[in-house]
Model the fold of this input.
Amino acid sequence: MPYKGLSRRSPAVAGREQGWTDDTSFATFFLRNPLPLWIYDLETLRFLDVNDAALRNYGYGRDEFLALTIRDIRPTEDVPKVDVSVKTMPSSSLNAGIWRHRKKDGTVISVEILSQEIAFKRRRARFVCPIDITERLHAEEALRSLTQVLQERGEGLRHAQRMAKLAHVVTRADGSFESWSESLTTLIGLDEDEVPENTRDWLASIHPDDRELFRTTAIRAGITGKRTDVEYRFRHSGGSWIYIRQGIEPMGVRRDGRWFSTLQDVTDEKVAQLSIQRLNRIYAVLSGINTLIVRVRERHELYRESCRIAVEVGGLQLAWFGIVNKDLQRIDVVASHGDGKGFVEYLPLSLGELPTGEFILPAKVVMEGRAAVVDEIANDPRVMLRDQACMRGLRSVVILPIKTASEVVGVLALYSGEAAFFDATEMRLLEELAGDIGFAIGHIGRDERLQYLAVYDPLTGLHNRESFRESVAQYIQLAPRESGRAAIVLFDVERFHTINDTFGHEAGDDLLKHVAKRWRTLAEGDLVCRLGGDQFAVLVLNVRAEDEVARMIEQHNSLVFGTPFRVGDSELTVSAKFGIAVYPSDADHADSLLKNAESALYRAKTTTERYLFYTQKMTERVSARLTLENQLRRAMRRNEFVLHYQTKVDVQTRNIVGVEALMRWNNPETGLVPPKDFIPLLEETGIILEVGSWALRQAAADHRRWKRLKLPAPAIAVNVPPCNCATGISFRSCAIS
Done:
């Protein structure tokens, strides 16, 4: 843009006197200047020209900026002041001032304005150089704030020096003490000539556990150059430990390495604070365990979670829960939490008397029913495994009795890493906690009893009637109808009422418990229950044939009732009657199946039969098969089986090339019985194994006899069932060829 419109009386004249030769030089100076510059019309206040530096600073494009007035770049509240300034600003002087401008993005900045009135294109205009001084103002404000803080701190320091238990120390760069307040000697209990001379000597009087904290804090202060606070324990001249809170901060603006430390004895405050913290932790433990008690329904979860809450919430190092084992006269640890591995499991927890006549601490708590507190484990001989406890940093312990009603059922042991951790106030809370846990154990015990009675018979421990019925219903619902056959067997003890009347109900109860115990031992997966009185029920699963059930009844009846029962001083020989209902042939519903089994039992009790099926035909069929089974077993013992041989002839040569052994049963009552009438039952009952082995031995003997008699002895084929092949016994004992 040509600048020919500049008046000869404008600053352009001064520019030429400094080396600008024409308006082009001034234009170059204006546009390329790194400082923001613009020119605006004094009448319209619209911008007439602007350089690139201003456009960058304010975020506008050239056309955007030139469409604005100086009002548009000011905050709204500053516009009236702008109008007044334009009207009152002298035209002949160089003006300066600090204003606020607004960039295109809305950011408000502080600028220092340097301006001069000029003639631009024959119009009165003002040449402006706005310098952004926002950061400078912020820095000045920060400096003023810092100065105020230092002044306030100085006043505070002077006030602190007048307070009791306050002192200060000035330290040189090499750590030596330059000066200290008179109150320092009182604070640490030393005479003037006994005060440490440097930081190293001071560190020697700090508690060993706090020295690293002090050293680290001092190093951090040196690195950051900022005030740093630290709390530590310091040995007072009397030998006790006091708590000191020390504030360390650099001295002087030049930071010449000197440090100013304010020291305050905060022992009373710290002790109270630690006590409150411990109480808060105990309250938190009490709250956590009470919340646990509301929701927990299982005692082992109560033991486990109580220990966890004591450690994780209460800040204790170790907790373990022990239950009194009266039978073994000891305390069994059932749960622990914290650093107890390799320690808790080796604790001697016998309830018996020691050779010295004393009792271990947990045993004493159980016997007396009172809590025991040890303030310093290392010094108390009542604590077992003291060395191991000290190695783990365990300093104090409390053992709380856990009572249900008036009986101590267990103990809760809590360990702390601090000596004398459990004071009187905390003990009141912990005893309340132990009472709550005891109440919860009693409540859980009652719930467990109710849950047990909902499923089991309290006398025998077998399932009760309702539980049995539900199990039968569930099996029927889930079992395949074709392959999931089952049977309900009901039985009761004959003449039980006579036993009750003769020997008393206690003897009758003992008899029922003995019956339940014997039958449960033989059950092998079958569900056994006591329906009530002297009546029992058995759910037999995976029944392939009714014969199996009858066979099982005969076997179990012999094993359970074949031996007399010892009841008190008497031996009682009793028997039982059985009723059987089979699923799904007799019923396909649990209640109906149970009802039909009861009906079968009732009929059996009115007959001489030991057992009856619900269906009479089934009873007759099973009875016939069992009779046949007994006859076959007797036939085996009496050698009633015989082998007949059927020849094998070569059709071309007409010669005998072998014989096949055919088994027959020579029943002395009915004569020869064909295989189809007895072989299937042999296979079903397993007698076929014995009979098959006999057939091989007999065929081999016949083959040897033929040879001795110089008779033709062709190869003999014996049909052996697969079960005989699996055993391999017969083939090891004989070979027929």
Remarks:
- The chain has a mean pLDDT of 82.
- Residues 265 and 574 are 89 Å apart (CA to CA).
- The longest helix spans residues 424-455.
